[in-house]
Records
---
Amino acid sequence: MKNILKQLKFIPVLLLLVVGCEDLDLAPENAFTDATYWTSVDKAQMVLNTAYSQMSRSSWFFYNEGLSDNAYNGRGDNEGAASIAAGIYNPSLGRIKDEWNSRYSGIKTCNVLLENIGRVPGDAVIIKRIIAEARFLRAYQHFQLTTWFGDVPLLSKDPSLAEAKTISRSSHADVINFVLSELDAAMADLPKNSEYGAADKGRITSGAALALKARVLLYEGRWADVVTATEQLMAGTYGTYSLFASYEGLFLPQNEYSNEDILSLQYVPQYRMWPEMFDMAPLSAGARLNALAPTQELVDSYIMTNGKKIGEDGSGFNEADPYVNRDPRLTATVVYHLHPWKNEDGTVRPIYIKPGSSVGSNIDEYVPGSSSTSTGYYLRKYFDPQHLTSLQSGLNLMLIRYADVLLMNAEAKNELNQMDATVWGQTIGALRTRAGFTDPGAVTFDTSLSQTGLREVIRNERRTELAMEGMRIFDIRRWKTAEDVLNGWAHGAQYGVQSIDNGYLRVNLRAFDPGKHYLWPIPRDERLINTNLSQNPGW
Amino acid sequence: MKTKTTLKILLSSGLNLITLSNSKLSKPGLICLLMLFLSFGNSFANTNYFQEPIVVTGTIADIKGGSLPGVSILEKGTSNSAQTDLDGNFTIKVASSQSVLVFSYIGMRTVEKSVSNGTNIKVTLEDDATNLEEVVVIGYGTQKKTKVIGAIDQVTSNAFKGRANVNATQALQGKAPSLTIQQTNSEPGAGLNINIRGIGTLGNNSPLIVIDGIVGGDINSLNPSDIESVSVLKDAGSAAIYGSRASNGVVLITTKKGSKSSPMTVQYNTLVGFNNPKFFTAPVHGYENAMLRNEAAYNSGQSTAVFTADQIRQFKENGDTEWFAKEIVKPAMQQNHNLTVSGGNENSTYLVSLGYVNQASNFVGPDKGMERYNYRINLTNEYGKFKLTSTIAYAKQKITDHSSNTSTLMVDAYRVPLYYRQKDENGNYLTNDILQQFNSLGILEQGGYRKYDNDDIFGALNAEFKLTDYLKVKGVFGGRLYANSVYTRVKEVNFTPGGIYGADRDTNDESRKSLDLNTQFMVEFNKVFAEKHTVGALVGYSNENHQDRGTGIFKKYTDPDLGIPGTDTVLGPNSYNSNQSSSRNSLNSVFGRATYDFKDTYFAEFSFRYDGSSKFRKEIRWGFFPSATLGYGITNESFMSDYKDKVGNIKLKASYGVLGNQNVGNYQFQTTYNTFPNAYGFGNTGVSGAGFNFANPDLQWEKASTLNLALEADFFKGALGITFDYFDKVTRDILLPPQVPGVYGTGLPDFNAGKVGNRGWEISATYRHSGKLFNHSLTMTLGDTKNKVLNYNNGDQRLTTLEEMQVLLREGLPFNSYVGLKRDGYFQSWEEIQGAAVPAGTTVQPGDNRYVDLNKDGKIDDKDKFIFGNPFPRYTFGATYNIEYKGFDMSVFIQGVGKRTMMIRGELVEPFHYNYGMTMYTHQLDYWTPQNPDARYPRLANNGTASNNNNFRNGSDMYLFNGAYARLKNIQIGYSLPDNVLKDMGIKGFRMYVSGQNLVTLSKVGFVDPELSEFNNSMSPTGANSGRSYPTQVYYGLGLDVTF
């Protein structure tokens, strides 16, 4: 027994040896903590970069066209384009929730940055710029939210979880006021495009802030303010902007960062690319299938080279040979039957879409229910000849370009009944000349047109100039014409039975209820969590 | 002399273990063990004195009096041995009248007899199975079965015999009540879901796995034939000693050891067979499909037919092409080999085993599949009061896989109607209207591979010193070092007429090295006072820690042949260094148990654990987890002795305790910022971004209060044994992320925010009969659990979208109940449609789904959604029947689920799913037509039409199926050579058998494998079940067991 007791005294010693050893205070090796993060301008800059990346996404950029009468999403329901365009959706739709959540994530990134930037030591000039960029991005997100949803929660600071669960919607007017005042504030602290070095191309400029302000005012119908803002841009007060010489060339990689690009979503070959062209280009150009195709309605909106609409007397339009003598921007945007496709090596070949027309491979041909185009058209604009595998591209996608400024100016001037030959020459005329029109009937101002007639011309110009760039849906919503263009059949090329719609393919039956569809519903999940969130009318 | 040699082995195995770790911890662990050695190691002595040899004779029989030939007789402490002859007689010369003889026979309890009682010995050997002294493995120790009062199921090695299992989890399926194992994928190397007693929490539901006393081993890297027993600890009484990680139950695995004083036995087992891929459905004929497509187009108002009459006639004349899905699979061989050498002398035992499994993949193309090599040494050494158990196990697993994604390959192959071909006579891989980009055959045959190479080294050293016959100290040191790597080559395949796979020519390497270390120290006390008070106590301390690091290299545009870099090769920006992918955690604990019983009649047990975890903030890091158990062996009362003699034993048991769960990510209590490359770009150059993970500084463990009531009874002298358990568990402070509104802008880490009740019962019954002609036994298990959410963050609810349906987390409902519209038949006529409630904006036609307008507001929307059943399997059952007749034996194992709501979607439900799938399947032909008004599915209509939207985009109970099934999991028929033949051949045992797996499945869902699940073992949806999985395997094999 004594022996045992002698041994027993070792036990606590051994126990101690084992006990004292493993530290329970462990810190991660691959992440910073709140205490170690906000220590340099570089690190603040990285949070800002995240906020930039949350501004928009390529799938929205392209599939938003499928929400409008410009295009049809015939495979899957990409970004909700199929169900929203057809008017068959509800507050549970993934796209609606996703847009809401992503935009508020972007706002959070900006708010976290703005609330912590004061802790960061370093160059005051750069810090001031970072703050201005973050305020612009936060305003941009609020603007997008209020455009889709109307009244939305306004977050000028980062909310606590409890606040986020009880916050109610601020009125659309309040959100717009916030956006405008933030843009004014940001504009004062942002450099002009000419002041940035090559490594900073793509950053927000004072010109971008002003252009976004013009867009906000345009959507609000504040025509005089639109004129002021766009004229400041046209005067070069906020940077050097002009139309790029070639419409086709504007969307090619060698012409990135041209003076027409006011704000673009940045992509980098190999490192940050967008993949949508894989499902939009002709299959013979390397696409795997067609999920988004331009509609006949879009193709029909391109005027003749003589400036007349296709249905107009004397237009010279020939239904049997519909793609000749058309606005040159059609070829730069849409791939139609016998479109002269420019290969990556610069050679040109025709694309065969009409059933049974092919010489050689027939994979681009329209076959009902197949993987090829559902409308008889493919997309050309933004096709990147320097694409990587699977048509991935590092081309920047322009969110605001100078052509838009001119169109905004023209529209506002006309609404103020101030359209004249000078304004026309600076805006629509300039755009048409750049597009390659030479016929005076297209380029010169038609004094015979009334304000209403001009409105139609300007709106149509806006549609064709900016086609497949994600703008159309916002325009038909603000013009309140969605109910006219989004009800009934969307059509494809004339490959169908003659007795139905004159042979133009019926591709998608659409429904738009003006009593409810002008605003998206507040997501169902969101209202389950926060009962203070009201719903839009009709939902 | 002998002592020294063995010590050397011990030390070298000890050192092996030590070199595994560089941690601060290992040194004291070693010192602790070495001190134990040094202080006690040299106090042994062997006494041996010479005497005249004595001749001993005798007979050996079984309980029924049948003679037992081939029983081995060993003089204890020597290598002197003999065997019984055909009549069970033996003769052996022994050294002295003090000698002890050890009688052992496979499957029977070993008996020791001293020669001092006479030189003619009669021995009766009993079946091992009816062993009353059976020992059950419990947390940090063992307990005699008669004294167990916790809810523990023990599965013995017999469960694994002769089954073509590639891993131990598979082998456990259906073997213990309420141990639910779901095989969601049959692919070689795929994981399985394990749940003990259902779903008790809303977060991680994985049970704690303990192998040979060491926490953190991988059950799937074990060789199933090395397993001696598996204990499943289900209640708080048995599991509380594992404290903060025990609330999902604990699985204790003990590996086989050699037997003391037995000559060397060599066992070789092999099982070789084929896995045949089975599909549960098939596409309709090609021409039939073309007609169905036309019907859908017509129903959708289209004016042109998709296929002309000529084309359809042509399809019919040409006949069907082979279904792509069948063309990419083939029967594949599976081999299991095991060689075990074991034995022991008076002081030590050894077991060395080698295992090899090769399960070839069913996919065509270059060889794919899983290979595993297992090597194990288990040694026990006793020197007087000192006992050392050392284990080293090594497992190497190699998996060769294709370079793509199995569900993509399967779904692509599934979707193509039978008028396309996958490969032409010139060997070109063909693309078509449905698979424009590539086909699965080309990828499998030429698209490269992914090779996994995993090394797993497990070691444990367990030193035990008996201070007195009632007090011992134990030190355990062990751990697991595992290194996983995966090497990928994606090779370019060109398709005709278009499509390229693998144009990036990726060559990737990822590797990860992890180390789990356990150090335990305990003191154990066991003593019987006055022959009726049995008292036991255990107190211990342990540290468990884990660390891992990994690296990844991703290169693009590498050399097409060798995969080495060339001029245009780029290093992928997602490559990472080891500091980018590392984690650590650690747990310090004090634990203990006290047991008491009075004459095997009144039992009481108390256990606890006090845990401190690195996953929580310093101030709130420590938690206490106690449990208490009472037992009453009522039939041991004198007033019940009559009943006991006539009927059998009855024991009543009750336990209550609090268990924890700390399965959450590391470092969640501190806000962290991560940076990542190429978040955005400026000037066409990528720039890094940063993200943040918000902290919850108040994070702590979940606490589960568990009540368990059990009844154990046997009848007919133990021939029939029944146990019944009822449990009620309430888990609070459940770790899960709170429901965060989108406006908040970011997700949040886990909070202690939920409360779930989980109630259930389980019954298991075993009947054994040993007759003159044949022996047979039947074991049945049945269990049910039902969970209910009691609180989620004070009234929150969480709706998770699962494709067309949703699952809901809400107070008062089973966890993740399905939410969707309820079908009310079909609109049968235009009159019915007039004024009927339909989803907003939708125009329907006769033959479209009609939904119940729950709130009667005249339209169908989210407010009309019903809550449907419980997706977790209920009434899980297993039945094993064994019969032996002369040399023949047969065993049948059936396993299944009595109730489960199963969601299936995708092309298997929706014809021409989203225009992605372009064939219908035979089971879908039951669709609505005016002539078939009561069909299972609505009328055909094209994607994008209002009808298609109404029927298929609105998640409804149309997508829910009855997941109940019963499956003949295994059947074996064997023949063992009789002993006289064996003796002539000079071997101890020889059995040949045929084995079959998954031969018959009874299921209400005929068109997919009913074992497929859309959930992982924590019931989180892992993606909806579209049946796009690797085919189920039907196995036939031939096996051989030889013992030398």
---
Amino acid sequence: MAIVKSEAVPVRSTEDVVQIRRLARDWSISVGFSLVDQTKMVTAASELARNMVVHGGGSGSVLFEVLNSDSRRGLRLTFEDQGPGIADLELAMQDGQSSKGGLGLGLGGSKRLVNEFEIKSAPGQGTRVCIIRWK
Amino acid sequence: MGNSLLVTIQVDMHDQLAMALQDDLTEKISSTRARGVLIDISSLEIVDSFIGRMLGNIAAMASVLDARTVVVGMRPAVAITLVELGLSLSGVATALNVEKGMALISNGAGPGNLGNGHRKK
């Protein structure tokens, strides 16, 4: 799998979340996603970027990467923060599960909007969420 | 518009802006004694869980103030994404466009009083 293009963007505030949505749209268009796929990717990016602002202690960043693999193209977004981390990942992935008064759809919902979803987190070690959507 | 408020969301709102809209609108419903609130989201390219929650909150607050809320103009791609995200917008009435939304309001339709299949489950 080859990485064709990449860019890292810091996320510290809810204004930055708007910027991430805009970038996710631009990158989705550049990969050639349909309108529905663009919308899914942008929505997933919005949820995960907001998660970093709310839980990540203002230390988040998003890495945008265009992938080439077996003649198919994809967009990979990696959300990484140095926040407190998540003790119970299984619980955090459940719909309706929120520790900060949200709807609790961020993680589980984002997973449904993409083709591949990977999360790594541990208390005191931050959180890393990686999503891929293939064209 | 009559005794209804029409709100057109034209920018990609960050979260605090969405919260401010929610508060301002609740204030306006009370001060204008509006009986209906139409929220046109046809310019919105996405509705994520935060905006979804805002729409639900506005509908709930309006309902307490005896006003009906109808969300109009949702793009098809947004609707598809919302459902996969897991957002049901329960309690929020929807219509295809402003005209149909107005008709819903003047028919007295709204959460708890929708008999025509427009209410999202």
---
Amino acid sequence: MSAAGAYGRKAASTFRLPSSNRVLIYFCALFIACWSVGPFLWQTSTSLQLDKQLVGGTPKLLPDPITFTHYVNIFVAKSFHRYIFNSVIVSGMTTFLCLLFGSVAAFALARLDIRGRFGILGFILAVSMFPQIAVVAPLYVLASQFGWLDTYRVLITVYLALGLPLVIWVLFGYFRTIPRTIDEAARIDGAKPLTIFFRITIPMSLPGVVTTGLLCFIAAWNEFMFALAFTSDFNHQTVPVGIANFTDLHYIPWGDIAAASVVVTLPLVVLVLIFERHIIAGLTGGAVKE
Amino acid sequence: MAIAKTLSHEADLRPPHFSFRFRRPGPVLLLFPALAAIVAVSLYPLILGLWLSFRNTTLASPEDAFIGVANYQQLLTDGQFWNAWVHTIEFTTASTMLETAIGLLMALVLTERFVGRGMVRAAMLVPWAIPTVVSSKMFGWLFDGQNGAVNYLLRSIGVIQHNVNWYGSPDLALPTIVIADVWKTTPFMALLLLAGLQTIPHSLSEAAMIDGANPWQRFWHVRLPLLAPTLLIAAMFRALDAFRIFDLVYVLTGGGPADSTEVLSTLTYKNLFSALQFGYGSALSTAMFITEILIAVGFGIFLLRKMREVGQ
């Protein structure tokens, strides 16, 4: 079996790709990479150029001279740090609660004796398919009755419920890959389910937990519609709402917008590049299996 | 005490596939917070929305009464609704088809082994991670009618003579939005399809190659049929998601110019939060929901039929 596999792999690498095809593959790969990061790099370059160069008629690929006026502008004139602060609180709390509630729920579904667990999982999946615009009006009514408009808690609660299905499904998948014999050994040693959860299940699926947390954070950080509907003062508005409202009276401040884009996207890009392998596994694991 | 010990001892002797029970705090208690949040924020409001769609609730006046199906009757004769409906279907069809096709091409490139493949895969996550509001502004700047880089590039290679006002013209605005969406979503689609392609055993392609199949035949007769279920499921999720498009349109054009990019989500949002028509707006969102279910059912039937064909 392994000999055949080794032979097959060797055969594949020796006569699968003629050199003309190799050139084509590299060309395509280069194209995909440029297509993916090109617009963001252009945005970065824009954020470092002077306004008069941006409207000069001939766009320059690289900023010359490099200027940080746009970055100064967004923080000094537009108080962009307030939006960032709001977003950090909302996304951070969302991630924490999603992981807390989602992981115990996934643990219960994957490990404990629950009748109709696939019914519950199916229900959770079905709920996550609802178009969000269908719940924004009723939630607005409820939030105003509770006096929750313009608060962090309304956004955190909504994002929590929107994030939980993904968290539960991905973690359910991870938890099921841990051999049951380990649980049973711990149980024979007298461990209670919650001890097993905190001392065995969570540490053993840490990559999965970190990835899911990251997905939750990105989803909450990027969400726009609910934030737009439920917050109207800038003390609670998140970054996407802030950027969407970035317009001056007479012209569109492309340089400032570009600077804000870079500030809010760079941390995400760095995180994503670090956790690339785990994210892809986490995102595609559930989607591809039938 | 002794009895309890005997009982628990007995429990230990059950066959190992039996998962263990415990009564305090109870597994249901662990599920409760998550399920409560989902029911309170997704299921209950959905029902409340359905209820609102039969009322004439507005936030601008104290009006709030049951009016039966009047909202839905109004909907059927509402030109704006059908206008938005058509745009949404056009957008969904165009973006899903382009993203599936280009995503498949990208996935086929990435299944090959080459130096730097990991880096390309990482780069492909960048569009996915960028907030949609940011990518909308990015494309707003790229396709800007006066100083946009796209206009400059097309002018320098001689495709166009004068600057084109991409999202300021009713004919070009929707295609421009499709381009922005394709940029943002295709790489993710490609990664999904790549994961699907990697589950197909290499030995099958190799066997076909030994039988003399050329690359095109190996793709068309071996890999594509095996990938079809993944392809269809991915396309379905993409279509359902594309149908809800909101951020991109709201930020890039706001539905304009002359309503040429108005889609169902933006129309609903405007009815809700600009006109404050909560009753009528809820009828709109319910109509959207029903269309989504139809799309899902359509894909589902198609998928089942395909699977049965493959099975026989």
